[in-house]
Amino acid sequence: MEPFRIHILGCGSALPTPRHFASSQVVEIRGKMFMIDCGEGTQVQLRHAHISFTKIRAVFISHLHGDHCFGLIGMISTFGMLGRTNDLHVYAPQALQPLLDAQLELFCTGLGFKVVFHEVDTTRQAVIYEDRSLTVESLPLDHRIACSGFLFKEKETARHILRDMIDCYEIPVSQINNIKLGADWVTPDGEVIPNERLTSPGTPGRSYAYCSDTRYLPKLAERIQGVDLLYHESTYTDEMADRAKLYYHSTARQAATIAAKAQAGKLLLGHYSARYEDENVFLQEAKAIFPNSWLSKERMVVDV
């Protein structure tokens, strides 16, 4: 099975601490690299993770709070110094575009590649990126400013060839791809052999949802139903639920409740408030609701 991995570069919240970097992740799927959020320190973490800067195809920015986007212009500048030639696609709320354009004009003249901006409508769930192997959907979140999560969905693979049936009907190699794509086979005698006899179902696609930052949003579970891996912010523990609501964040218990309602395969907690010295309190609270909960930490690599 092709790799589908999440590289955690930073999982802290707004206030810097010696323990955590600001929010940033890299989604690795079938050899392609996509970045989600780009807080300060992201470039350093890319180096530590041994992820090639040149492999980042696109950057998805959830919202315009500094701990999620202050590292973007610095990274783009570094791409230029490294001689990047491939376009960099940036998906973000519309408010970022004039700011990014001004920064590019001031700091990044003479780039050898284009920065292509794609506006994300944070009010609706929609496919914002698609290629042959995956789609990325926006996920409306409930934060103090326009904010979107992202749902990465791998497409189901083509149907698997049943070699013994291919040999039985002496089907030429030139027809294998057509049969993988669903074609029937017609024998020289005119008999139609249904595709279902020649193949088995393709491998179902895997999925990953990134949800940071947001208030507790019950309907989010419907939008990500059955997701294999969920990253959901857990800025506070439940004893600070009132503070979480005030500042449009979630508790670990609320994150676990979303995971349980969504019937997710696994939950990653993150975006921890700097006030907590021992993050195991998040884990204990979440596990009481959703046992397959885990703490995110820098340089963690999680297979989907």
UniProtKB/TrEMBL annotation:
Residues 203-272 form the Metallo-beta-lactamase domain. Its EC number is 3.1.26.11. InterPro entries: Metallo-B-lactamas, RibonucZ/Hydroxyglut_hydro, RNase_Z/BN. SUPFAM superfamilies: Metallo-hydrolase/oxidoreductase. It catalyses: Endonucleolytic cleavage of RNA, removing extra 3' nucleotides from tRNA precursor, generating 3' termini of tRNAs. A 3'-hydroxy group is left at the tRNA terminus and a 5'-phosphoryl group is left at the trailer molecule. The active site is at D67. Its cofactor is Zn(2+). The keyword Metal-binding applies. Zn(2+) 1 binds at H63, H65, H143, D213. Pfam families: Anti-Pycsar_Apyc1, Lactamase_B_2. Zn(2+) 2 binds at D67, H68, D213, H271. One of its GO terms (molecular function) is 3'-tRNA processing endoribonuclease activity. Binds 2 Zn(2+) ions. Keywords: Endonuclease, Hydrolase, Metal-binding, Nuclease, tRNA processing, Zinc. NCBIfam families: PRK00055.1-3 (NF000801), RNase_Z (TIGR02651). HAMAP family: RNase_Z_BN. Zinc phosphodiesterase, which displays some tRNA 3'-processing endonuclease activity. Probably involved in tRNA maturation, by removing a 3'-trailer from precursor tRNA. Homodimer. Belongs to the RNase Z family. This is Ribonuclease Z. It comes from Segatella baroniae F0067. The lineage of its organism: Bacteria, Pseudomonadati, Bacteroidota, Bacteroidia, Bacteroidales.
